Amino acid sequence: MINDSEAGEEIKRHLCTNCGADMVFDPKLGRLACPYCDSSKVIEIDPAAIVEQDLSVFLNQSGANLRPLAVDALQVTCDSCGATVTFVPPTTATSCDFCAAQLVAQPKAADPLVAPEGVIPFSVEGSSATNALRRWTKSRWFAPNALQTMARHDKAESIYVPYWTFDADTATEYTGQRGEDYQETEHYTDSEGNQQTRTHTRTNWFYASGRVERHFDDTAIPATVSVLPEYLSRLEWDFRDLASYDPGYLSGHKAQTYQVTLEEGFERFRDIADNVIRNDVRRDIGGDRQSIDSIDTGYSNVTFKHILVPVYAGAYKFKNKTFQVIINGRTGDVYGERPYSALKIGCLVSAIILLLFIVILIFGVFSSGG
Ligand SMILES: [Zn+2]
Ligand SMILES: [Zn+2]
Q1: pTM, whole model, 2 decimals?
Q2: Domain map (residue ranges) of the chain
């Protein structure tokens, strides 16, 4: 545990110097703004404060570096999907942004976490996100009214979702085979007794071994499992937008607690890195085909960051199924899945059948008249 004076230094509250109210991070201004008077305040950005943490050193400290996201932060966990959300009063969390379930549990003081090193601040305002959501809903044909209702009630709320990023140097020793293709022409007699030729591709295999090195920089691993994987894979972040973390960014916005632990995140990073390295090895082996017999990779200088990225998240229920909509808090791009309303489609099909019936009726009348 960290004592209060330490925490006070590390985790500052942002009060309006004019009226004493809690200031809110304003995506449009890109700074803290007072909701009651006109005053605003820049959050100091200190690039030197974004420190890559040494992974092995950190893991050996077992909890010494953990602290809550903000000094007065509360957290509440969704009974339905398990997402834990942190917020600073007067911000509240009444329903889950990821699954639409009501949050019935009482919020409690936020648990200490691996402190975020950086944050990509919101730059899309709530009103712009709502407009993007409305445009998206309007362009969905045959969507049930629940979708329209969600857009009308501004149910996509601003929430930071957690990522891990990893840096590492790798050196890989490998052995394998290089395949070099050649063409072989075969003469044969076909079923009708004619001489024919055909060519086959054959491969000569040669032993290969060597060493490849690669540096990984800011490989991002989502630490949330609440955002659907197909949206996560399409959410893109420019890490040049990364600012040093300050609790001020949390003012007026929520943050999700990481669900993928640092250790699990590193395992996922290694899976991604291993694939990249295998491609490097194939390129190093060369030839037309490659087979890898052994591969031995050493990781060094492994560092990580816990970072928060901005999304607007909303969910709605339709026929007992939950549908999620995610808006990128930097670009305003909307990712969502949508159900088809059987009622609306049914109405259209009926209308078409009715129209056909009328056409046949009129055509029938004309043909009998002629
Ligand atoms: Zn004020
Ligand atoms: Zn939930």
Answers
A1: 0.79
A2: 4-174+208-339, 344-370
